[in-house]
């Protein structure tokens, strides 16, 4: 056997190890309904994992590059691209994989995804501002839009959850598939990169296609109703994809990723009245309808007034401050996830929203939006931003290319 | 409307809010294959979540009781039982729930599970040794089998990840459903309990019924092949359920839960050869077959010898040390989960196995097994136990009873 692929040996296309062995019965697979082994194409004009229908689970990782040799960095990106493309097809990270190689060498895949489907895995890479320092001779290639984020009011950033030279966003419908992918990239990168921080998200808080139902965040509200959707090419062109002439040519077709680890003080929120919660958000908790409207997708009307001429959507409501109308037309593509990371040591869950957004120029999109929210949004009383990252995601790769090839 | 139930308003039995609204189409649910809304019965002779077919996701929480009033503790358990039973049915934590109550009161449910199915949720409660101190007059009721665990060789326990007065194990096929349940129990317990620690598990590492395929741990190996299975009442009677006469009568039909947070040094493991990995585990990585056998479920034969009379399963292999044959017949019911909690600050993922087992008497089962493993198992070079908990899980409740009623 020259190649052991996850799917060929173990999965849908293969014999199904799940059915082998004395203890398994013919009903084994039937008893465990699995999502279809959906494969998201890896190659394309843009990277997958941005407008791809948001998968249910996330593992996000930020790496420090530990080598100072440009050639080693390029080799790593080349190796990573091959492994990433394989894993998104549902295969092992490398030929021969976990069990097909020589007995006396470490396996070329870690094995915990054997038997699992591709689970819609996408791997999306981004380069942080710190990568563009003199180590790799990339100073001149740094896009002006990759400007360090300013300090926002109420920021409480933990350096151990912030920054990094390279990020990889792994999204999948099976968390074990996402974790496996990140872990194997880290393994392949041993000696060249080290994990700086990583974050699991257990539930998506955004829809990125029109056929996805809007999920709920840990405030219990539908989140991202007015998100940019994949079916809207005009909005993607205006707000997401970097165009020719926007900056260095290597970023054309790319986008900028902003990640924010937003701790939610859910215990305080849970002791707030329903009316107060809805006033803070500007939507009904049940339906997700904007205040003053009937249905979730009714347009937000910031001008409806109630008794005494008071706006139904308060001046400091989240939907008002985040509305394109309030921000000179600014929009972003949101792709965040709920998280719970144990407890905070003070009797509470350490839970919140791992916010991810994609934008064509954060200086004109995420930054002014967050300036408005962090200074005026009543919701900020219940939030603490304690992690932050900004990354330039290069355009998609064609077969044979590697991640960020046009940068090097 | 007098009652707003998650399923009635939003779920399979109801109108399906997912389908409402201008942006949703008739294909919305079809595009998101969901597990069937399986409901695991809450009432019974034993608690659910022990022999229940292991669900895919875990949220485990340990609470400190912060009140010193016995009556408040009993009230809490009563309230919790009602909420737990509702949530396992796929309903909100309380009548009226997230959006059906008065506008000027905090909602009776936090809302993030609106629209989600029951997802096979089980909630399993346990009482730690520290609950049986003089605060609640329970000293006499403490079962001898709930003896504090000894210190094992190589233990490196973090008090912030260990112990606790009460634990709740929430398992579900949807992690948001498990997190929602724990969060609402914590909310209901405000003023009486505080979260001491909590742990998410993203993938099960055990099967507890014969029709479940054996999953893989983060060493890439199938885990728990020889687990006690629900279909084996003799083994459950001998090794899992506390019998009349085993100790205090309130525990008859219950069991003891041991939780261990086992950090795996996966980076070191990944640089070990396949042969070495298989020798450490005592099984083939691909098939899961015991060394010297052909199929996963072939019986482990500790006496097969290879070239030169050397045992094929080494003396210090994990399967040998953990085998009932090596431990005087001792078995446990395993129900663990893979975890990844960000990074360790030293360039590695903080990943491992959140080990959970159930046994009739840990003094005769888990403790001698862990003594053997912690002193002889070669695998220990790749492990660090940094969290630990021991809890007495009372028997199941009948309708109208509350968790642990026979204790009070």
From TrEMBL, chains A, B:
This protein's UniProt keywords: Heme, Iron, Lyase, Metal-binding, Oxidoreductase, Peroxidase, Signal
Keyword Transport on entry: no
Pfam families assigned to the protein according to its UniProt record, in alphabetical order: Dyp_perox_C (PF20628), Dyp_perox_N (PF04261)
Enzyme Commission identifier(s): 1.11.1.-
GO cellular component: cell envelope; cytosol
UniProt-annotated stretches for the region Disordered: 90-112
Residues in Dyp-type peroxidase C-terminal domain copies: 214-397
GO MF annotations in UniProt: ferrochelatase activity; heme binding; metal ion binding; peroxidase activity
InterPro entries documented for this protein: Dimeric_a/b-barrel, Dyp_perox_C, Dyp_perox_N, Dyp_peroxidase, EfeB/EfeN, TAT_signal
Cellular compartment(s): Cell envelope
Gene Ontology biological-process annotations: iron import into cell
Cofactor(s) this protein requires: heme b
Residue ranges constituting the Dyp-type peroxidase N-terminal domain according to the UniProt record: 47-202
Coiled coil regions in record: none
Family designation: Belongs to the DyP-type peroxidase family.
NCBIfam families xref list: Dyp_perox_fam, tat_substr_1
PANTHER family from the UniProt entry: DEFERROCHELATASE (PTHR30521:SF4), DEFERROCHELATASE/PEROXIDASE (PTHR30521)
Role according to the record: Involved in the recovery of exogenous heme iron. Extracts iron from heme while preserving the protoporphyrin ring intact.
Entry protein name: Deferrochelatase
Classification lineage: Bacteria, Bacillati, Actinomycetota, Actinomycetes, Pseudonocardiales
């Amino acid at each position: 056997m020259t190649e052991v692929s996850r799917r060929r040996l173990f999965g849908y296309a293969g014999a199904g190890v799940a059915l082998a062995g004395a203890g398994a019965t013919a009903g084994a697979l039937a008893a465990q309904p699995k999502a279809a082994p959906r494969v998201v194409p890896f190659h394309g004009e843009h990277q997958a994992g941005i407008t791809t229908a948001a998968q249910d689970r996330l593992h996000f990782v930020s790496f420090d590059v530990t080598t100072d040799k440009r050639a080693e960095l390029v080799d790593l990106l080349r190796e990573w691209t091959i492994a990433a493309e394989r894993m998104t097809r549902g295969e092992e990270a490398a030929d021969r994989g976990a069990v097909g190689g020589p007995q006396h060498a470490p396996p070329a895949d870690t094995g915990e995804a054997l038997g699992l489907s591709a689970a819609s895995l996408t791997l999306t890479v981004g380069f942080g501002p710190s990568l563009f320092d003199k180590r790799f001779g990339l100073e001149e290639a740094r896009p002006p839009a990759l400007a360090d984020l300013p300090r926002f009011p109420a920021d409480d950033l933990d350096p151990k959850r912030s920054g990094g030279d390279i990020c990889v966003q792994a999204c999948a419908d099976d968390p074990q598939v996402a974790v496996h992918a990140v872990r194997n990239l880290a393994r392949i990168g041993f000696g060249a990169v080290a994990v700086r921080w990583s974050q699991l998200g257990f539930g998506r808080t955004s829809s990125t296609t029109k056929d996805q139902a809007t999920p709920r965040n840990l405030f219990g509200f539908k989140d991202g109703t007015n998100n940019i959707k994949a079916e809207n090419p005009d909005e993607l062109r205006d707000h997401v994809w970097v165009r020719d002439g926007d900056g260095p040519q290597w970023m054309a077709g790319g986008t900028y990723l902003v990640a924010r680890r937003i701790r939610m003080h859910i215990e305080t929120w849970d002791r707030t009245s329903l009316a107060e919660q809805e006033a803070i958000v500007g939507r009904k908790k049940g339906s997700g309808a904007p205040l003053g409207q009937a249905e979730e997708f009714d347009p937000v009307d910031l001008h409806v007034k109630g008794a005494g001429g008071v706006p139904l959507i308060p001046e400091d409501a989240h939907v008002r401050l985040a509305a394109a109308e309030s921000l000179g037309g600014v929009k972003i593509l949101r792709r965040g996830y709920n998280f719970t990371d144990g407890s905070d040591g003070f009797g509470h869950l350490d839970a919140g929203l791992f916010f991810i957004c994609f934008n064509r120029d954060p200086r004109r999109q995420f930054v002014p939006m967050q300036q408005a929210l962090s200074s005026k949004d009543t919701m900020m009383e219940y939030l603490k931003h304690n992690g932050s990252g900004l990354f330039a995601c290069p355009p998609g790769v064609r077969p044979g290319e590697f991640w960020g090839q046009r940068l090097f």
